[in-house]
Amino acid sequence: MAAIMLIVAVSRALVITCVSCAAGENESERENDALLKDVSFLFMIAALLTGALIIVVAMIRGIAKAFRSLSRSYRPQIAAADSSASRSRALVGSGCDRCSRSSSA
């Protein structure tokens, strides 16, 4: 936010020099005024782009943080589901002890 304020301050400082010189105008000062106003406008665009960049970066960081917290909150449930599924597969896959003894005998 401070960066935006400083960029806007520079922009306004350029325009103030144009206004203060308006009293004793000649042709070269008018050209300089037009140039300073254009440069001031470019500084204002830079301030807007800086603000947009700050907002977009903050949004991306917030979304990434939300996804990380969601993935952490679902990990224990997924791990519990995986362990119960592996236990049930182990019970089904091994058969009962009586069947495995009778088939090997």
Structure notes:
- With 105 residues, the protein is mainly alpha-helical.
- It has helices at residues 2-20, 27-94, 97-104.
- α1 (2-20) runs antiparallel to α2 (27-94).
- The longest helix has 68 residues, at 27-94.
List the main descriptive attributes of the protein structure presented here:
105 residues; mainly alpha; 0% strand; 3 helices
- What gross morphology would you assign? rod-shaped
Beta percentage is under 5%
Structural class designation:
mainly alpha
Order of helices and strands: HHH
Number of strands: 0
Give the SSE layout.
Blueprint: H1 2-20, H2 27-94, H3 97-104
Helix pairs in contact: 1-2
Brief overview:
It contains three helices and no strands. The chain has 105 residues and is mainly alpha-helical.
